[in-house]
Amino acid sequence: MAQFHIRCESEDISPYVILVGNPQRAEKMSKLLDNAKLVNEYRLLYVYTGLYKGERITIATTGMGAPSTAIVLEELINLGGKVFIRVGSAGGIDPQLNVGDVVIATGSIRDDGTTPNYLRPTFPAIADFDVTKTLIDVGKETKSNITYGVVISQDAFYVPYPDEEMEKFVKAKVKAVEMESGCVFIVSQYRGVRAGALFALDGNVYLKKMKPFDAEELFKRAEEDAINIGLEAIYRLSKAGLK
Ligand SMILES: O=P(O)(O)O[C@H]1O[C@H](CO)[C@@H](O)[C@H]1O
Ligand SMILES: O=c1cc[nH]c(=O)[nH]1
């Protein structure tokens, strides 16, 4: 049955889904599919389904932040989504990382207001092991300097963490900050589906090197790497029939 925001039917959605925040990234990725069909454009939450190397996959836009992401994920699960990979952007925190790097999340610090409505804040937001292992395998084959570890999912993009807290994150080897993976992991855990996430870095918030416009090309290359890793991973998981 068509959902309240994702206005398409179950037959329009593959169980294997790529999630992106930015609708332009969804459009860009749809061009890498054969026979891509736009199955939802309501609220600019573009959803495409098509073939990647012969496997039927869906690419869906979550919008920015946990509330929008939870809505989209819930509705995709209602429509039959089973395995999810978020292909996003993030700001580095690990001082070794900068624009152009790609990070795979093994888990997320849940600094958002949505997920405590699902599971208490002490419940860990952990990426699915099989999905993450596939992402890391593909990542290592694709990019020599792939990094993986814990990230932070926050709500307030324009409110930086206090220096003291940031130093603790660096000491604890937190890799990056973004806004949706914690929600994707918790909603997936709660609803009994699997999820992983990876990000192209657009700067480093700890080093206060945020979104340097002269590095746009480096970001685009990292975004392409993240897109290719995400697509290859979801293809392998679909081919293996991971449920
Ligand atoms: O590039 P996307 O996937 O949107 O991800 C990141 O970019 C947005 C902020 O600019 C937030 O959604 C954040 O998580
Ligand atoms: O949430 C985000 C996304 C990209 N870059 C950041 O610094 N934060």
From TrEMBL:
Domain Nucleoside phosphorylase: 16-231
Cellular component GO terms, alphabetical: cytosol
Record's catalysed reaction(s): uridine + phosphate = alpha-D-ribose 1-phosphate + uracil
Domain of life: Bacteria
Descriptive protein name: Uridine phosphorylase
GO biological process, one term: nucleoside catabolic process
Keyword Transmembrane: no
GO MF: uridine phosphorylase activity
Xref: PANTHER family: FI09636P-RELATED, URIDINE PHOSPHORYLASE
Its EC number(s): 2.4.2.3
Keywords recorded for this protein, A-Z: Glycosyltransferase, Transferase
Family matches, as Gene3D superfamilies: Nucleoside phosphorylase domain
Family per similarity comment: Belongs to the PNP/UDP phosphorylase family.
